[in-house]
Amino acid sequence: MEATQILMAEHRIIERVILALETAAGRLEQDPKFRAGFFIDTADFIKGFADGCHHRKEEGALFPAIAANGVPVEGGPIGVMLSEHEQGRLLTRAMRQAAERLAAGDLSAKTKIIHNARSYAVLLRQHIQKEDQVLFPMAERVIPLEQQNLVAQDFERVEHEETGEGIHEKYLALANQLELEAGAAQ
Description:
Layout: H1 2-30, H2 37-68, H3 77-103, H4 109-142, H5 145-163, H6 167-182
Helix pairs in contact: 1-2, 1-4, 1-5, 1-6, 2-3, 2-4, 2-5, 2-6, 3-4
């Protein structure tokens, strides 16, 4: 299914940033002078790409299509994914707030950054695995072919109308920059 392939390709980009985030958390742990702005930039990536682009496609197009084809939202895998999206948002906000405090000279914020960065990484790795291995194959089974094409078209609409032209490319460049700065590029 084209829509799930698009989301899995975006997962690979998000995983690169997660690795950079974990690497940077380790560097901050060893060196309190590691740039606090790295974590602010990562929060921007998460908010703009992982949440603003990727999760928007899932929540606005894929999940409703799965639910319309008999998979319950409450008490089912969609409800779990939505809950994890919200947990990720909370961890990202907390990481950003702590990074802003560190950038302003509050050295005690370092442990909060590290905790939230690592917690986000664990959450998102497990979340991506569940989507790739359980939810997306389920979507491919339950959504009829003609509807699958509509979901992919809705992704295009989200990308161009809601997210905006050139935004995807902007966040790909930021992912590359974060990998390089953290020393996590493979």
